[in-house]
Amino acid sequence: MDDIPAFSRMRLGILASHGGSNMQAIIDATHQGVLAAEAVVVIGNNAGSMAASRAAAEGIPFHHLSGRTHPEFAELDAEICRVLADAGVDLVVLAGYMKKVGPKTIDRFPRRILNIHPALLPRFGGVGMYGIHVHEAVLAAGDKVTGVTVHLVDQEYDRGPIVARCEVGVNEGDDAPALAARVLEREHAFYVETLCKIASGELDLDTLS
Ligand code: GRF
Fold first, then answer.
1. Residue 95 CB–ligand 1 contact under 6 Å
2. I need a surface site. Which of 74, 112, 195, 203 has the fewest CB within 10 A?
3. pLDDT (tens digit, 9 = 90+) per residue, 14-31?
4. CB atoms inside a 10 Å sphere around CB 88
5. Contact status, residue 20 vs residue 96, Cβ threshold 8 Å
6. CATH fold for domain 1-110
7. Minimal-distance CA residue to ligand 1 atom 10
């Protein structure tokens, strides 16, 4: 389906490190006409990642930018910023991006960088809270409910203003991989739903606190 005029589509720049399943869900939603957006560039710190292969399969330019290509963090930040700006990106979408976004990129895209986190922030966020560790911590805490958070990115991990959250129940007998799989499945739909609300203006990134 392709009946959304190109001029009204948000131009997305996606940053992804590994699996890229959230990225794929977003791209699929753009192709299906569910999301009025277009993924115009993908940046990853891992050239051999699934995210890189998915970008190639979709015909979306992929840029490997990392500490290998740019040993100085400030230079890496400047290059990421340049690639996003040159691609005319409106919104930067972190989808399993495991690195910090630098100050130049944050300043160039104020309140226009989103991240998804597999828990209900501010619980289970911050340094060390990534991947399976998040779900292990949820289970260790005995929480009955976890979820998904989409938030704006600032210079602290998982700290920026919350854009949207949704709950996912913790089931009796869940182990961390089972919980991780259920949360990830919810992430796919929820990231798309949240982006749709941003695209339609129902969610205003400039007025979040
Ligand atoms: C997701 O759980 C996301 O919340 C976290 O990293 C994971 C990425 O998964 N930030 P994928 O690469 O989208 O498959």
1. yes
2. 74
3. 999 999 999 999 999 999
4. 10
5. yes
6. Rossmann fold (3.40.50)
7. 96
Q: Of 31, 63, 117, 151, which one is the catalytic site residue?
A: 117
The residue whose CB lies within 8 Å of the most ligand 1 atoms, and thus the one to mutate among 28, 134, 163, 184, is: 184
pTM attached to this predicted model: 0.94
Largest CA distance in the chain: 49
- Point out the ligand 1 atom lying closest to the alpha carbon of residue 134: 2
How sure is the predictor about 154, in pLDDT bands with cuts at 50, 70 and 90? confident
Residue 171 pLDDT greater than 90, yes or no: yes
Kindly report the CATH number that applies to the domain delimited by 115-201: 3.40.50.170
Looking from the CA of 185 toward its CB, the CA atoms found within 13 Å total 7
Q: How far apart are CA 14 and CA 43, in angstroms?
A: 6
- pLDDT tens for each residue of 56-91: 999 999 999 999 999 999 999 999 999 999 999 999
Amino acid occupying residue 121: L
- The one-letter amino acid code at 196 reads C
State whether the beta carbon of 187 lies less than 6 angstroms from ligand 1: yes
Which of 142-159 are b and which e, b meaning 16 or more Cβ less than 10 Å from the residue's Cβ? eeeebbbbbbbbbeebbe
- No. of helices (H) and no. of strands (E), the chain: 6, 7
The DSSP 8-state label assigned to residue 157 in this structure reads: T
Specify the domain boundaries for CATH 3.40.50.170 within the chain. 1-110, 115-201
